[in-house]
Amino acid sequence: MNKKQQKTLKKIFAKPTRADIAWNEVKSLLAACNADISEGRGGVKIMMKNILKYKEYTGSVNFDADDRIFHGRVLGIRDVIGFEGESVTDLEKDFREAIEDYLETLETCREISKEPEKPFSGRFVVRIPSELHCAIALEAKKQKKSINSWIADTFKSAIEVH
After folding, report:
1. Which of 34, 113, 115, 157 is placed for a possible disulfide with 49 were both Cys, Cβ 3.0 to 4.6 Å?
2. pLDDT tens across 24-35, in order?
């Protein structure tokens, strides 16, 4: 986030609320916060991507308006890794540093026979009715795929649609 975007953020949270904030300034700030902005048909759609990614790790992004600080934690692992920052830039930096610190513990963890966790192993258990299991197996066979390949392809298609 550059200095102009930081000034816009301060204007937004100023009390009393200011009326002199230009839409282009807000759009620039939102873009710096990794938001998707779609304008059209008399409206604006803003989708915040409240996640950060670094290496193979994903972190949540939250904002505490009372403390005026961004914070988050690494998702998909049982170990608790938190990070924070007063700006998006600070948050991203602390997220990367937290991941690097976690990965640096690899040697120490190996010495005590504990491996750092990797997010999302690629395996999960789903309980479904036997009739559905049969239908999936038949469909996978029809497409000359394993059940795992068929499910992975089906899930991927469902995610891409959204």
Report:
1. 34
2. 888 888 777 667
